[in-house]
Amino acid sequence: MSGERSGDGRLAPPSPPQPPAPPASPEPFARRTRKQQQAHTRTCLLHSAAKLFTRKGMQQASIDEIAQDAGFTKGAFYANFKNKEELFLAMLDERFAERFEEIDRVVHQDATIEDQARQAGVDFIRAIRADEQWSRLFFEFAVYASRNEEFRQELVTRHRALRAKIAALFEERARQLDWTPPISAAEASRMTFAMANGVALEQLLEPEAKSAELYGTMLTTFFTGLRATES
């Protein structure tokens, strides 16, 4: 672009280019509330614990290591959990809540009970494959519970609570079908738990096997058999 003319008519040299304006400073992140920070700390500790438990084993992974891996102090660990067992139970509560939500969703789909059973089997294996370290961790703590009575009771309490919720779904579905099963809802729930644990172990030992189809077939066969032997 040409420069402007000066008072004597001569062209003034063009003005030097101006540097671009600096970008606006980003707004500071909103500060977490105390409750949000505590939830964030717990999540980080749970994630680090799962990773270290899987890599080193529950007994070998120390609380110091868990806190350090999560980026917190040992005091932060004890502000959230009494010990490693309590931390694992918090993990278990989360996983059980997720599994129940999946089962509840399937049960309330517009489908036959056999199709619902098949879908529940597929969903269960999909969840296991998405988080294989959880299966390893669960079985390790199950063995630990067999040697620690206090921890075993905590684990059993949670198992019974989830089985009771699934039994309630089973009873609800039976009422919808005007069906009187030959076994109690509690027994049916416990049987499906036993099958799930067995298939989870098979999936852990032989991940290349078609476990999704296997568990879906098991559940379908189970409920088809129950329907064929109404009381």
From TrEMBL:
PROSITE patterns assigned to the protein according to its UniProt record, in alphabetical order: HTH_TETR_2
UniProt domain HTH tetR-type: residue ranges: 39-99
Keywords for this protein: DNA-binding, Repressor, Transcription, Transcription regulation
Record GO terms (molecular function): DNA binding
InterPro entries: BetI_C, Homeodomain-like_sf, HTH_TetR, Tet_transcr_reg_TetR-rel_C_sf
DNA-binding segment(s): 62-81
Domain of life of the organism encoding this protein: Bacteria
Disordered: region residues: 1-40
Signal peptide, first to last residue: none
Keyword Cell wall biogenesis/degradation tagged: no
Gene3D superfamilies, sorted: Homeodomain-like, Tetracycline Repressor, domain 2
Cross-referenced PANTHER family: HTH-TYPE TRANSCRIPTIONAL REPRESSOR NEMR, TRANSCRIPTIONAL REGULATORY PROTEIN
Name of the protein described by the UniProt record: Transcriptional regulator TetR family
